[in-house]
Specification:
With about 100 residues, this protein is α+β, with helices and mostly antiparallel strands. The chain has four helices and five strands.
């Protein structure tokens, strides 16, 4: 058996074990069909009010698609990016003098 053949066999066996350990299926990154979301749908996704969403758009903090007539529409990927950018992660939140502060844990 050549080195390349042995290497390919090893890679295939490792791949099979990883798939087996992960439950036998690979999750696609985005399983929802593509479509623009309405203002109300975007608010629901971020668990905020439509007014709150409009304010973030006005401040330039949330990416929006402007359709004919000025209606706002949103890409799901943009909403996910907005939420991801605001993750606290491993930071610890605590109240100091009535205000929230972040501390690295």
């Amino acid at each position: 058996m050549s080195f390349d053949s042995a290497y390919d066999d090893l890679v295939e066996r490792i791949f099979d074990r990883v798939v087996e350990k992960l439950g036998g299926t690979q999750q696609p990154e985005d399983t929802e069909p593509w479509s623009l979301l309405t203002l109300e749908e975007a608010a629901q996704r971020l668990t905020r009010s439509p007014r709150w969403i409009r304010e973030r758009v006005r401040e330039g903090k949330l990416t929006v698609v402007r359709l004919d007539g000025g209606a706002l529409a949103f890409e799901l990927a943009d909403l996910r990016a907005f939420a991801q950018a605001r993750r606290v992660g491993e930071l610890e939140l605590r109240v100091v003098g009535g205000e929230w502060w972040q501390e690295a844990s």
